[in-house]
Amino acid sequence: MSDTPRSPLYFAWRRFADNKAALVAGAILLLIILMAIFAPLIAKTGYADQKFLTQAYAFPQAEFWFGVDDLGRDFFTRIVYGARVSLTIGFTAAAFSLVIGIPLGAIAGYYGGRADWCVMRLIELFSVVPPLLAAMLLGALTNGGFLTIVLIAALFGWVQVCLLVRAQVKAIAQKEFVRAAQALGATPGYIIRRHLIPNAISPIIVGFVLAIPLAMMLEASLSFLGIGVPPPTPSWGQMINVGMNFMYFYWHLAVFPTAALAITVLATTLFGDGLRDALDPTLKGR
Amino acid sequence: MTPALELKNLSKTYQLRQSGGFFARSTDHLAVNNVSLTLPRNQILGLVGESGSGKTTTGMMAMRLVEPSAGQILVGGTDITALGHAALKPYRRKMQVVFQDSYSALDPMMTLAQIVAEPLHIHGLGTGAEQTEQALDMLVKTGLDHSYGNRYPHELSGGQRQRVAIARALILHPTVLVADEPTSALDVSVKAQIINLLLDLQAEMGLSILFISHDLSVVRSLTDKVAVMFQGRIVEEATTETIFTDARHPYTRSLLDAIPVLNPRDRRARTFLTRAQIEAATPRLSGQDGRPELLDIAPGHRLEAIR
Question: Of A254, A262, A265, which Cα lies nearest the Cα of A66?
Fold first, then answer.
């Protein structure tokens, strides 16, 4: 036995540190997050400044790392600011997914019976609707916009969180420490808050991180289809759409936003997978 | 003096659904059948029986962790059978439980100090600092020192975890403790330590313990009285001394026969009885068939017989 007490989360960190792919993915994700936060310091112009109209369509070069787009804007600046949109939507949508998914999952798992039945039917309802189709419909009805996309992504992201939390809570609710708390006269609310959710922290973290790339992909898809984030706010999906038009002549306009999206989504997913394996070794490979 | 805990004609029926889909009929299964028990103050009552005999269900009903289908539970003379959550809370302080599996009995995300202080927290007794201090004192009482306060359950051995579970159960100074096979997951030397700890604390704190076990050697060294359960019913109840020297019911005898003998030379011919054999050998007073009843055959000695 070691001298300093080790919480279960410490061992999770040790397992995570052993997973090189997840570690690298985490570092890349951190870099992208920092880039997004400090975008004004990195970029030389504002994201909508058409300062280089005479050099429009310029290929990547020393002055313009990623070239210049069709409207004379520095493309690197646009990509960096695009990370802001993508990440903000990813994180807020994931946070909203938790807000819906945790209480519903905890209630379904703890009470079982009728409550569980209702939540499961609700989940099935959301699982049979293709998210993109529903998102397109809702997006078209509401004319897109930032908040709409977040809400749409959360509407389809909570299902996974809810299922993870429900399964975990269901398993823990059978444990004797929950019975001991009941024997002490603890209310169901107390037991859920103090015992069930802390013990479900692993699936919650995993659910959160894995909801991020889904939301980012959804935003990119909607923006690509023109019902997402409205211009001139830079969004990678929107940029891919524009870049497609010039793909055979000015490759950089399509390649850079696609690469940015792919790298970010991949890094987040790998990071999330690593977290899942580290936090709950029994879930490995699922 | 009113007994610490009284169970009167307690029954529990589970509905078992037959497989076969939506229209399947459900059958009733009587897990506990008309059990009456009295736990006098400052005494230890053993409740023994094979797995599935209903002894744990009886203990859980006494704690109101399982709702009885019929009967009454009296704590210190007050009927708590029908009390709601809020009304029951003051009585929850008086009765606590220690489980068999000490690993799942402790929240893995909490430190030992938090675990032991939790009862105080739930009942809103004292400030956070006072709660922690009391919890550490209680840990010391159960044989763990202060340094264990910020450790986590996974760092402890089975015996140490059971000590923590006992500390949590006793920090509210309950009058009744239901111990549901607290030693059956422990190895022999640790088992003895936990039994001694329970005996010490019982004497020190004036506890009454309902000790549920299938380990007769533990029951013999710990309890004042023993009740034997078979098929959800109590078939014999007497002082520990009487049970081990003058058992009358065939099931009690076959349980006693099952205690392993250390010296092979002392090994005797064992009689293992099947359920049907036990039913057939149940004492009959008149030679006729009828319903089994618990009869007083001597002061403090009850035996099931068919009248």
Answer: A254
Across B198-224, average pLDDT: 89
Tell me how far apart the alpha carbons of residues A161 and A168 are, in angstroms, rounded to a whole number: 11
- Mean residue pLDDT of chain B comes to 85
Is A201 within 8 Å of chain B by CB? yes
CB contact under 8 A, B155 and A186: no
Q: β-strands B95-98, B176-180: how paired? A: parallel
Q: Considering only CB atoms, which chain A residues are within 8 Å of B172?
A: 184
Hey, where are the domains in chain B? 5-306
Domains of chain A: 8-283 (1.10.3720.10)
A86 close to A264: Cβ distance less than 8 angstroms: yes
Tell which residue, B188, B246, B197, B193, has the closest CA to residue B217. B188
Asked if residues B88 and B63 have their Cβ atoms less than 8 Å apart, the reply is no
Q: What is the pLDDT of residue A284?
A: 45
Q: What is the mean pLDDT of chain A?
A: 82
ipTM over 0.90: no
Phi/psi at A129 (5° precision): -90, 125
End-to-end CA distance of chain B: 32
- The alpha carbon of B82 is separated from its chain's Cα centroid by a whole number of angstroms, namely 21
| B67 interfaces chain A, CB cutoff of 8 Å | no
Please say if the pLDDT value at position B178 is more than 90. Answer: yes
The verdict on B252 touching A (C-beta cutoff 8 Å) is no
Strands B292-298, B301-306: pairing kind: antiparallel
Q: Is B99 on the interface with A (CB under 8 A)?
A: yes
Looking up tokens 């029954």 gives: B11
Cα separation, A74 vs B60, in Å, equals 71
Minimum Cα–Cα distance from A178: chain B residue = B105
Q: Which of B63, B106, B107 sits opposite A183 (nearest CB)?
A: B63
Residue A180's nearest CA partner among B90, B159, B32, B107 is B107
Q: Quick one: CA torsion of B192, B194, B197, B202, rounded to 10 degrees?
A: -110
CA distance, residue B11 to nearest chain A CA (Å): 20
- Please indicate whether, in this complex, the C-beta atoms of B89 and A177 are within 8 angstroms of each other: no
Query: What's the CA gap between A62 and B122, in Å, rounded?
Result: 66
Cα separation of A78 and A239, whole Å?
9
Interface test with B, best of A177, A187, A199 (most B CBs within 10 A): A177
- Residue A286 clears pLDDT 60, i.e. is over it: no
* Three-state secondary structure call for residue A238: helix
Q: Touching check for B151 and chain A: CB below 8 Å?
A: yes
The mean-pLDDT minimum among A67-71, B67-71, B88-92 falls in: A67-71
Residues above pLDDT 70, as percent of chain A = 91
pLDDT per residue over B99-142, tens digit each? 988 888 998 888 899 999 999 999 988 888 899 999 999 999 88
Stretch A31-38: mean pLDDT = 87
**CATH 3.40.710.10 fits domain B5-306:** no
Beta strands at B70-75 and B5-17: parallel, antiparallel or unpaired? antiparallel
Token pair belonging to A77: 């600046």
